[in-house]
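Record minuted for everyone:
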Amino acid sequence: MLVMLAGTSSGRAVRLRIQEAVRKHPGMSKSDLARHLGQSWGSMSHHVRRLAHQGDLRSFRDGRVLRIFPPDVPSGCLRQLAALQHEVAVEVLQLLADADRGIQELVDRVGCSRKVVRKVLQDLDGAGLVERAPGAHGKFHLLEPEWGDLLHRYGTVSPQPPGGG
């Protein structure tokens, strides 16, 4: 009986740490959370499922990745916050706030691969934050100038680059 009670207490402590991490970094994947908290993916999956069932977390499927959010984040913001989880996304949006830019210019400015920049732009486009600039072949422009407010209101980018699931 004591072992079961200790396990329950330990589970509550893990769930509180999950809620705290998700509040600080909304949109983390279960893999991001597991690494951040030093837990196994299976344990994280169990606790996230339990918290979601209790209404203490929300989730959003971003391709193959299930992103986890606090319960107070509005549904309309989930896709946008998920797209902002890659630190390159923040750099790209800051550059697009100044002017429309093409992929190669963004690659040169942020210092990462073309593949990463294309994926980030695809995610930002899907979230309605950017789009291809009309009449400017291959350039993108910012659609949502208030994207920084989302990060300010609901947290920051993940401490780990997204990619887990």
Observations:
- The first helix runs from residue 2 to 24.
- The CA atoms of residues 92 and 151 lie 15 Å apart.
